[in-house]
Amino acid sequence: MRPRKLSREQLLLRSALCFKQHGYTAASVSRLAQACGLSKAAFYYDFSSKDALLHEILEATHQQLRKSLFQQLRRPHEDLAAAYLQAHASAAHFFSSGGTGCLAGMLSAERPNLPEQIAEKVRAIFQDWEQAFYEFFRQGMDEQRAAQWAALSVADYEGAILMSRIRPEQNYLALLQARILHQLNLHQLAES
Q1: Spatial separation of the C-alpha atoms in residues 145 and 29, rounded to whole Å
Q2: What is the per-residue pLDDT for 10?
């Protein structure tokens, strides 16, 4: 077998883009192999199945989010508004960079067609993100309010990301940022 031209990271990225473009159901092994410049036989040399490939992509995405955005939210912060601005910039970059960003959200639309292992990984990503937001908001809010804002923030980010694909002229992420900053500032004023 001749050496492949792409690194594993490049194969994962090209495959992620294929999943984002076609969805889980329509991203056949043939289509994934073609996106990577591989034959089906070469694809199976690297990945035992489409599901194994997607799980690896989601795991890499989850690790990337943990190391950047989630870790950033979980750190103790003196100024929540300033810390949120930094976290939001990281989120906006991750979700707009064209790679694996928003793949989990797109896959969730196909939930009935996803194998349970993939659906569970998507759920784990969202739960981890919500927990990171909860820990962030908990620094300035009571438990109930922090839990509400954490759940709402993850849902709002996913909605903003998807709506940006439909109406790119609207900056939904900027609107979301303004709303969360407003809430943080209101809460800070109430404590003063």
Answers
A1: 45
A2: 92
Q: How far apart are CA 167 and CA 72, in angstroms?
A: 29
Q: What is the model's pLDDT at position 1?
A: 46
d(CA 160, CA 173): 6
Q: Residue 23 region, left (φ>0) first, then alpha (ψ -120 to 50), else beta?
A: left
Classify the C-alpha dihedral 111-116-72-148 as positive or negative: positive
Q: Higher model confidence: residue 144 or residue 104?
A: 144
3-state SS of 164-180?
Answer: HHHCCCCCHHHHHHHHH
Question: What is the mean pLDDT of the segment spanning 118-144?
Answer: 96
27 dihedral zone (left: phi>0; alpha: psi -120 to 50; beta) = beta
CA distance 83 to 61: 22
In angstroms, the CA 41 to CA 52 distance is: 15
**pTM of the predicted model over 0.85:** yes
Contacts (Cβ under 8 Å, ≥6 apart) of 15:
27, 32, 35, 36, 53, 54, 57
Amino acid identity, residue 142?
Answer: D
54 closest CA partner among 5, 119, 10: 119
